[in-house]
Amino acid sequence: MSSARSTSAAAASDPYRVLGVSPEASSAEIKAAYRSLVKQHHPDAGGDDTTILALNAAWEVLGDQERRRSYDRHRAVSHPGPTPTAGAAARSAATPTASEDQILAWLQQVYAPIDRLLAQVVNPFPAQLRALAADPYDDGIMEAFCTFLEQSQARMARVEGLYRAQPCPAGLQEFSLELYHCLSLVKDALLDLERYTMGYVDSYLRDGRELLRKARLLRRQLHENRRQLQR
Asked: Could you say which DSSP state residue 81 is in?
């Protein structure tokens, strides 16, 4: 159990560590490491859901080139290397860290309302999907599903504004990055589901459903990380 918690903590700080690869690893090396670890830690092989969640969260970052580049830029700012001069080192040492009040304010004013809006998208989805499955070719049922998607996209637009409204304080960068990944999963899911409504291509429905499943798991992990911050 403790190993699962340590793996989860590593996921929040450095996905490279979770997958056991260096930041210079190629995409093929990262993919091979992910597949090997998933096979090793799959519940059917005696693994646990927490470890799989950590591996999937790391893969969500490093398996997508755009997200990996974004993470690398963020990582370079959050974890700069050794400074070459004494003057630069002194300036770095003088940089203040965020106070507990600043961290609490960000969690209350940014994360909390974002999480409430996410809940209004993620939680109703299973019921919406069941209603759609009754007869996706029924105009009334499809119209209701499209209305749900429109409302969800409007909520995600509000989420985007909240996320960008306040800079993340020092000490919450990893948490903020995981939150961003959760938001990206939901936005991508809504796009796939919207594409499904335009042409009834089942792969879009499957992909959208899977992305929202991952978002639910990541949101659950964020709740746990939030509780850890209060300890």
From this structure: -
Strands, E assignment, 138-215 = none
pLDDT value at residue 55: 83
Q: What is the DSSP letter of 110?
A: I
Strand segments, DSSP code E, in 28-134 are: none
The fold for domain 2-80 equals Helix Hairpins (1.10.287)
In three-state secondary structure terms, 15 is: helix
Residue 17's closest CA among 65, 75, 80, 77? 75
Give the pLDDT of residue 93.
40
Q: What angle do CA 200, 202, 206 make, to 5 degrees?
A: 130
Q: What are phi and psi of 171, to 5 degrees?
A: 100, -15
Return averaged pLDDT per consecutive 10 residues of the chain, 231 residues in all: 42 77 85 82 72 82 84 69 41 52 92 97 97 95 97 96 88 88 94 92 94 95 88 66
Would you say the pTM of this structure is higher than 0.70?
no
Domain ranges of the chain: 2-80, 98-229
Closest CA relative to residue 144, chosen from 75, 136, 96: 136
Contact 189, 21 (CB under 8 A): no
